[in-house]
Amino acid sequence: MSGGPAAFVDRARRGPARNEILMQIKFKGKLLRLSVERRRLPNGRTARIELIHHPGAVLIVPFLADDRVILLKQYRPSVKRTLYEAPAGTLNPGERPNACARRELIEETGFRADQWQRLGKIVPVPGYSTEIIHLFRAQGLAPAYAEKDPDEIIHPMVCSVSEIRRLFRAGKIIDAKTICGLAHCGCL
Q1: Where are the domains of the chain?
Q2: What gap in Å lies between CA 53 and CA 48, rounded to an integer?
Q3: What is the 3-state secondary structure (H, E, C) of 57-82?
Q4: Is 21 a residue whose pLDDT tops 80?
Q5: pLDDT band at residue 175, thresholds of 50, 70 and 90?
């Protein structure tokens, strides 16, 4: 690592700031930041950590009926393929998870929900990211309209729970957040 004003200084040896987090931002994009940090760990050692800072997200498992769930077939450029996913999206600055879930459900499926249940939250990649995904179950669906994000290729589809289980067993549902949400709802 190079020297200069942005370089790390191990202040833990110098006095009062023993647990201080020292951070160097390596990249700042529209959605994510990448930092390299030096942290004092609970065991007293100092570690260099590379972190992706993420604003957080939501995932919704929308039920049209007790046995009918809306999934998406969504093209993901990062893996260069279309995946089966539950509707999901990133929190906007200052947005609460329940508001984000309501917005994303309409944007991605064309439905709104009258009944919401918070299922919990997951930490998908704690080894290198701060992302927390809030999981919701939505029911009492009715048609709604919202503009689609122009950079998303999404095709909603209705699946029975037995179809979802077949897709999962066949290795077709591989998105981790979707698997967690479906498992929380008893679909897997």
Answers
A1: 11-53, 57-184
A2: 15
A3: EEEEEEEEECCEEEEEEEEECCCCEE
A4: no
A5: very high
CATH superfamily, domain at 57-184: Nucleoside Triphosphate Pyrophosphohydrolase (3.90.79.10)
Q: Return the percentage of the chain with pLDDT > 90, whole number.
A: 79
Q: Give long-range contacts, CB 8 A cutoff, 24+ apart: 70-73.
A: 70/109, 70/111, 70/141, 70/156, 70/157, 70/158, 70/159, 71/156, 71/157, 71/158, 71/159, 71/164, 71/178, 72/108, 72/109, 72/154, 72/155, 72/156, 72/157, 73/154, 73/155, 73/157
Q: Report which secondary-structure segment, H or E, holds 122.
A: strand 111-122
Mention every residue, 6+ apart, whose C-beta is less than 8 A from residue 168.
179, 182, 188
Task: Convert the pLDDT of each residue in 25-43 to its tens digit.
Answer: 999 999 999 999 998 899 9
Averaged pLDDT, 125-152: 92
Selection from 185, 176, 186 nearest residue 84 by Cα: 176
